[in-house]
Amino acid sequence: MRKMLMLAAALMIGGLTWSVPGIADVMSLRGDKALDAKATAPDRRRQVTDDEGFKRDWKEQPPLIPHKIDKDQVTLDVNTCMRCHGPDTYKEENAPKVADSHFIAADGTKMETLNMRRYFCSQCHVPQLDAKPLVDNTFKSN
Amino acid sequence: MAKSPNENQKPGFFRRLWRGFTTPSARYSSGALLVVGVFAGVIFWGGFNWAMEATNTEAFCISCHEMRDNVYEEYTETIHYNNRTGVRAVCADCHVPKEWIHKVVRKIRATNELYHHFMGSIDTKEKFNAKRLELAELVWASMKATDSRECRNCHDFESMDLEKQETRSADRHEEGFDDGKTCIDCHKGIAHKLPKGAYDEKEKAETGVQVPQSAKETAKAMQAYLKKDGQ
After folding, report:
1. Mind telling me how many Å the CA of A51 is from chain B's nearest CA?
2. Is residue B24 a part of any domain in this protein?
3. Phi, psi of B65 (to 5 degrees)
C-alpha cells in the first residue's frame, strides 16, 4: 500500500513537471513575455468624434457615442448623460433621446425613472477609438 | 488752575504708550527712523502676504483629511489635475479669488471652515456625503454671484477660439454667451463628484437637504447687480 502511494505521488509530481513546457505554448493576451518582464505597451489611440453621430451597423445595435465622455459621471448619485439625453431635456439640448425601452421594468410595466438595469450607459453605449479590429471578421451590416 | 487729583500719579499704561507714540523722538534721527520704518514695513507686509500665500498652497489645503480624502482625491482624476499639456489648477486657483480684497474676505470666511474642522462636522465620509449637496450649493451660488470670476482667471471668453473647439462645444458655448450664462451654470462637477440632486430638483427635494436661502438670495442679488453694471 505504502509503495503504491509513493508511486502515485511520484507519478503526479513527474506529470506536473512534464506538463510545464505545455503552459508556455499558450499565447496569452500580453504576448510571449516572461511574467517578470514588462508587457509591450499598446499603440496610442485617439478617440474618434463625429458631429452627426455614427451610423448603426445593425438594427439592434446600441448607438455609439460620438463625443467625449471624460467629464461625465455615472455614479450612484448622478447620471450626467441624462442631462442632455433625458426625456425632459433632450429637445432643449438637441440631443438624441434615451429610448423608451429604457423605462420599462422587467415585468413589462412602465417606469417613471430610468430602469436601473439601463442606468450604466457605457455598459452598452461606447465611444470609439481609431483602432483597427484585433482580428478579422466577416460581419456584414444590414 | 486747580491741580487735578492724580497729577502726581504715574499715568496709565495706554496713556504712556500714546504719549510715546505722539511725542517726537529726541534720541534717533528722522532719517534712521524712516529707514528702519521702511524696512520693518517691508518685512511685516511681505510676511503677511507670504503667510496668506502659504495658505493658498495645495499642501496646506490637503493637510486636513476632510479635503485630502474627499474632494482632493476626486479631483486627481479630472482634467484640472491631469491633462494633455500638464498645466494644473490647484485648489486655490478655483476657490480663492486672485484680487487682494476678495482674497482677504475669503480668508476671513475660511475661519468658519476651521471651526467646523475642529467640531468634526464632516470628519467621516458619511457625514461629508450627507452635507455634500449643501456645501456644493454654497460654492455654486458664490461662483454664480461672481460671474464665475475664478474660472475666468484662466478661461477668458474673449480669448476662446470657438473655431478650434468641437462643433458641439462651440455651438453650446455660443448659445450660453448669448443667453448671458456663466461658466458654473453648465460646468458643475467638473473637478469633483456631483452630489445626489445636483441637477434634478425632484431628487434634491427627496434628499431633504435645506439649501441655504441666504446664499441663493445673495447670488440672485449679485447677478442683478452685475447685469445692471453692463457685464
Report:
1. 7
2. no
3. -70, -25
- Kindly indicate whether the ipTM for this predicted assembly is greater than 0.90, answering yes or no: no
Please give the residue range of the domain that contains residue B199. 124-231
| A78/B195 touch (CB, cutoff 8 Å), yes or no | yes
Domain count, chain B: 2
* Residue B189 to residue A51, Cβ atoms within 8 A: no
B185: region left, alpha or beta (phi > 0 left; psi from -120 to 50 alpha) = alpha
Choice between A126 and A134, residue whose per-residue pLDDT is larger: A126
Task: Measure the CA–CA gap between B39 and B47, rounded to whole angstroms.
Answer: 12
Over residues A37-46, the pLDDT tens digits come to 887 888 889 9
Query: Which chain A residues touch B if contact means CB-CB below 8 Å?
Result: 49, 51, 67-68, 70-71, 73, 75-78, 80, 83
Question: If you average pLDDT over every residue of chain A, what do you get?
Answer: 84
Asked if residue B149 and residue B75 are part of one domain, the reply reads no
Architecture of domain A62-131: Orthogonal Bundle (1.10)
- Contact assignment for A75 to B193 by CB distance below 8 Å: yes
How far apart, in Å, are the Cα atoms of B154 and each of A71, B87, B101, B161?
A: 19, 11, 19, 14
* CB contact (8 A) between residue B198 and residue A78: yes
